[in-house]
What we know:
The structure holds two protein chains of two kinds. Chain A is 24% helix and 31% strand. Chain A is of the alpha+beta class. Chain A has one domain: Deoxyribonuclease I, Chain A. In chain A, strands 1-7-8-9-10-14-13 form a seven-stranded mixed sheet, covered by helices on one side. In chain A, helix 2 (77-86) packs parallel to helix 4 (111-119) and helix 5 packs parallel to helix 7 (243-253). The longest helix of chain A is centred in the N-terminal third of the chain and has 23 residues, at 2-24. Chain A is globular. By secondary structure, chain B is an alpha+beta fold. Chain B has a single domain (4-184), classed as Beta Barrel (Porin). In chain B, a hairpin with a 3-residue loop joins strand 4 and strand 5 (113-128). Chains A and B meet through helix 1, helix 5, strand 11, helix 6 and helix 7 of A and helix 1, strand 1, strand 3, strand 4 and strand 5 of B.
Amino acid sequence: MSGSRSGASIATVAAAAVLGLASACARHDHPGGDRWVPFAEIQGDLAPELRNGAPPAAPPQGTLRVVTYNVHHGPELPAVADAFRSVPALAAADVVLLQEADAPRGESPSLAGRLADALGMNDAYAPAWLHSDGAGHGLAVLSRFPITSAAVLDLPYFELGSASERRIALRVTLQIGDVELAVIAIHLDTRINVNDRLDQLDWAVERADASGVLGGDFNTLPFVWIGRFLPDLPQDAVAPVDVPAAVDEYMVSRGFADPTAGSGDTTNDPVANFKLDSIYVRGHATGGSGVERGVTASDHFPVWADVVWP
Amino acid sequence: MRGLADLASPRCAAACRCARRLGIAGVLAAAISGRVAAADAPAGADRSARLERPHAVYLELLGKGGLYDVGYDRVFADRLALGGAASFFVIDDERVLTLAPYLATYPWAGRRSAFLVQLGAQIVYVAIPSHIRGFSGASSTGLGGEFSIGYELRAPVLFRAVATGVGGRGGFRPWAGIAMGGTFR
């Protein structure tokens, strides 16, 4: 009898723990900001950086190449710069979206700015948060064309238990000849499930221009996240969820083309790789796309897509 | 696009590394289990707790169900058991159902404690209803294999701690579980 009583107690405690975990995963904990905040309005430690020192390039003939690249804090900046000079697919880049771009405290320009200088591009950099040493961590857009406006949107915030981050989208307007192009760089949370991920993305898409480019690191891992902490690995081994397809479906329903849909894995990890990075285009036809798996300066590979221009 | 070999090799390497770790863990567990067996099998002890109380029901945290599972198994011979575990949970509206039948053997066993090896299948169904306009929802179903090694104490409360490897079309993934429950005749 005592054995069965203790068994029932254990079951009760475990069930309570399971229910507690499940209930902890409410919808986003705070909504995002409701508007794009221009760079000029952002002051203090999170002040962004907009630099238009490069001479404007001529409008592209035929296609405009967009690259997205999570540079993993950018310690391999020389290798990244070298890749953008030597790898033909990257050397043709007109616009580069960077995620996990850092800015060491007290240094200007940011690492993204230094990369832009090395490549003869303009840049807009917006930190989302600061490391403990005061270094900024955020998004950047590099462009061969003048950046005429830049703004930041706060995305819905999710409390992840540990390593929760403020997530943002960075929107710039590029002046390409007589035509303006809106470009949004984005980096979504890691340990959130599909509906939450789309909720976070939807916040930016609802506020995006009728035409333009939206790309970045969507963190589309195939896991069911337990308590926004633990990936359900047995589920992932046996019945992985096609999260990139879910994001593609959502974006297509919002009028975007998904030229990188069939790109395959975009991460550079010795154990397991996933498709996390994508580029979407609305209001313009798209051309080819690719993943540069020979560029190993980060834990992601650069992903590119062509936009038919004009 | 990457070639199949490119895609497969990191996963195979991970599987090999994990198998090596599982192997080391198995040897350690066997050694510990052997010592325990020697300690708790006094001369004259002729029936193990597994034969005396062959039915077991348990609740496992993590384990075969990912988050949790409830299971039942029955010992048919002193060193052989057949069982199954199941779980269903909902997180962020994502529904995960797991069914996991398995065969268990006790290569090193004392009267109450044993080194446990389980081999089984896993059937997993994931359903994700949509709350977002433009996303119709998603689902995923798969059949995989599972291999576990660990320690069992049956006295008569059941305690198990296992290291698990699960393989399927998503690759190979390591996992672990701790189960507690009861045993009965």
